[in-house]
Known about the structure:
By secondary structure, this protein is mainly β. About 10% of the residues lie in helices and about 40% in strands.
Amino acid sequence: MRRNQIITLFMIFVIFISASMVSADNGEDFNPDKDSGFYYTIQKGDTLWDLSEKFYQSQWDWPGLWEMNKKIKNPHWIYPGRKIRIFVKPVTPEQKPLTAPAPEKADPIQKVNPSFAYSKINRVGFMKKTSVPSLGSIIREQDGNLMMSTNDIIYINPQKPSALLPGHLYQIFTTRVVDEKIRGKRFKGIQHLIKADIVVLEAEKGYVTARITDSFKDANVGDQIMAYYHREPQLAVHENPDPIDAAIICSEDNTLMINDYAIAFINQGTDHHIRPGQIYSVRQENTSALDAFDRSGQALARHDIKLSPLTSGRLIVLHTEDIASTVMMISSKRDIHPGDMVR
Length: 343
């Protein structure tokens, strides 16, 4: 009898401890629909120690993974199906990229592929050969405000009576013509800047009313309306795509310096087989001046020697159109500028 009681108490203790561990690790997962960044879905048998070896070819990088996922109480207890954040180490000639094929050994390390999520993908701009069709333009804000933002009621002049339907989502956008000489080649395209999401409320005679549901940039009278441009926020990462000969056109906000997490455009797209999720390096030209002297020490001439390009950062492709791609800088060692090479 006593033996059975001891066994029963032991089983209750085991169940209590197991439940406590599950509860302790029942933190918030990485949510690709709300969060942004690189992530990985845990598989059966994974530990942070093993994942560090698979991602970074070093088991000693696991504390970095644990630091990024503070809800994990025990690095040896991570559960299948859970999504965790991961980081990307800068690539140097001595390092292998995140998804490098395993070396040929007797017991090769299994290759694992991360994913990337960008929850704000539907608000980033894009560049293409021609402008998307405009379904209408803003006449005014209900109270006459010159700048319009979230929850404002706006009046729209539709292109045709059935262009904008009540209850449907649309987006406010503007365009600008880009005509630049980039690394000796002419690039012409139309940049699209998305300003806000709207829902149409009513269709009146000659106009429609709508409410701005989410504003990213202030809207103005004359801004255009287009169909809601849905794009997938979750991307499969391809860190070793075929080399390309591209360049940065500009940043989305047309700034001269482009740093970490900035949105920009490159001059290649689906016409060049670029796909979302591909990661490329950003490089800058590197030259050194060499002075020539005669035997008396008098300067004769100065010559520029072209050295190997400097790797200044890395970017990931978020979205592609025909002639250009929208990208985000994921790391930078130097200021990045329009015209820098993308390889």
